[in-house]
Amino acid sequence: MTQKPLRLLIWAAVCLLVLLIVYVFIKLEMLWAPFCLVVKSILIPLIIAIFISYLLLPIIEWLHRSGLPRTLSLLIIYLLFFGGIGYGLYKGVPVLIEQLTDLSESIPGIAETYDGLLLKLHDHTDEWPDGIHSRMDRFIQRTEEFVAKTIEGTIRSIRFVFDYILIAATIPFLVFYMVKDIDLMKKTVWYLTPKSWRKRGSAFLRDVDDSLGDYIRGQLLVCFLIGLGAGVSFWFFDLPYPLILGLIIGLTNVIPYFGPVIGAVPALLIAMAVSAKAVITVVITILILQFLEGNILSPLIVGRSLKMHPVVIMLALLAGGELAGIIGMIVAVPAAAVLKVMMIHFLRMRTEH
């Protein structure tokens, strides 16, 4: 047997073996599923705690350098952060569930309003081809179904979080000890890392932190302020569901360029079902908030900490949206920044050798 057919035969055998292992693994789900559940229960709070510690650590270090004892700095920021979150959840979650339930029950009425608007639109567009009308009807129907499923899923998710409240309660304790013993943790990671990786690993993490740290913290603060401003404005002008719409606008604002447009769509759809005055209110509110963000909040809080060209950011957003929708767009920019740092370090290693 020649070399080439033998190599193909070996590759085919390896592929069959891998497929067999995967098949057996899937069939033995009842054995490994409980283990995965335990790992997930440990990993999710740990990852959240690491992320929160990463956000709070620079503020605690700044207070410590200003003269406050480290433990006191930690307690002040810790109580402010988790106290604020706890109070917000205590006051906001019941209102959020109430508004979500009300919105879910109001969808048929909103749908009737849009049906009336569609009939008027049909009357004014009789000369248009019939195919356009049917596509518009299908689009509205799919939008209604999507909104209904999203609301029901959100309510289920909130109740699901409460089912795991004991696991979530460990996060503040994890954060406290992570920040308190950060120097010990750094030393432990340093000694566990192979000697040949230490210098490069430290430089890589430092560059990732320089590229991402200020951006993430600043962007989260800007999103919170924009969401708060939108929610308060909608509440002041008596628009329905101000808390839901403020949350949507705040969360989607984390997506550069496309976020404000995505966040404005639900607010405009609900406003259109209320009145023309409500639509004008929403448009003016969003324009004012975007002006404040673009000219005051982002330059002052975020700055140019990301150090990436807008074209690269937009391409990353398009790729993230194609791969994982809204979640992909949220993760796309930080992932692109990390990939950029990885490429720089890889090229530097190539030139060194």
UniProtKB/TrEMBL annotation:
InterPro entries: AI-2E-like. The chain crosses the membrane at residues 7-26, 32-60, 72-90, 161-179, 220-237, 243-262, 269-292, 312-339. Pfam families: AI-2E_transport (PF01594). It is a multi-pass membrane protein. Keywords: Membrane, Transmembrane, Transmembrane helix. It comes from Bacillus atrophaeus (strain 1942). This is Permease. Its main location: membrane. Belongs to the autoinducer-2 exporter (AI-2E) (TC 2.A.86) family. It is found in: Membrane. It comes from the Bacteria.
